[in-house]
Amino acid sequence: MNQNDFLIITANATHVDFAQIICDEYESSAKARGTGIAKRSPDYVKQKMLEGKAIIAFERATGIWAGFCYIETWSHGEYVANSGLIVAPPYSKAGLAKAIKQEIFKLSRKLYPEAKIFGLTTGLAVMKINSDLGYEPVTYSELTQDDAFWAGCKSCVNYDILMSKERKNCMCTAMLYDPKDHYEPQETAQAFREKKGIYERWMRIKKRWRDLFDRDKEKTGGGGTLAAAKRMFSLRSLW
Ligand SMILES: CC(C)(COP(=O)(O)OP(=O)(O)OC[C@H]1O[C@@H](n2cnc3c(N)ncnc32)[C@H](O)[C@@H]1OP(=O)(O)O)[C@@H](O)C(=O)NCCC(=O)NCCS
Questions:
Q1: How far apart are CA 30 and CA 20, in angstroms?
Q2: Model confidence at 202, in pLDDT bands (50, 70, 90)?
């Protein structure tokens, strides 16, 4: 399959019945990966569709739902997040996430031309997609400081790490596109190609520390390893 096999459109009121399927997929994908993902309710997803702030994809031949992503605004519209990117497993690795991200990026630029667009991700595929669009990795201090945004992380399994680092670091990599000050997509794509190996290694390290963190919590309720994990997440030069 390739991108031409999908219909990728701005979601509207005719799509609200897909909200439950989409939320079920969020949950099962988070479970399967054992990683964090912010929980979304079907009502929240429906709202995004009704507001015209979401992109939905279907397989052209069958009309089966294939993928989704939506827009959130923070700090009174100063920041936009393209969140909740999901591709139904049968359609993965066909370039669909990339196509959905391109569309949600276009929609975000149209609706909020002045806003900084950002995302948090634990996945290299998403880092690659974002780099192709002109996003660059940034520290969390460059993201919105709106409490409502960070409250969305509460349902993530890594929330304890985020809070122990006072929202300065966590398992996710932050990426940002600033319309007023950004590299060209060719430059950010090239930077990703050059640094891909480092990102891969760094993600493996983070995963190992997550495991140690959990073991420490189980054994002692926090302490030695937890302190070490905190130190590790302070190595700002590595981010
Ligand atoms: C992550 C996810 C969205 C990817 O969807 P997908 O449709 O399979 O991705 P695509 O086929 O569009 O691939 C996107 C790009 O990433 C690349 N890619 C995929 N895995 C990669 C990896 N491990 N390292 C680097 N690049 C990778 C692909 O090669 C492709 O690049 P290209 O177009 O230059 O070849 C999908 O697997 C998913 O829904 N996962 C569960 C939910 C999730 O993790 N959401 C993201 C939350 S931030």
A1: 16
A2: confident
Q: Which two tokens stand for residue 145?
A: 């400081």
Q: How far apart, in whole angstroms, are the C-alpha atoms of residue 203 and residue 209?
A: 10
Q: What is the pLDDT of residues 87-100, one digit of tens each?
A: 999 999 999 999 99
Q: How far is the CA of 203 from the centre of ligand 1 (A)?
A: 15
What is the token pair recorded at 99? 């196509």
- Give this prediction's pTM: 0.89
Q: What does the pLDDT read at residue 31?
A: 80
The C-alpha atoms of residue 73 and residue 231 are separated, in whole angstroms, by: 32
Amino acid sitting at position 96: L
Beta partners for 174? 120, 138
Residue 93 CA to ligand 1 center (angstroms) comes to 7
Mutation to probe ligand 1, out of 129, 132, 157, 198 (largest number of atoms < 8 A from CB): 129
- Name all domains of the chain by residue range, CATH numbers in brackets: 68-238 (3.40.630)
Distance 21 CA to ligand 1 centre (A): 20
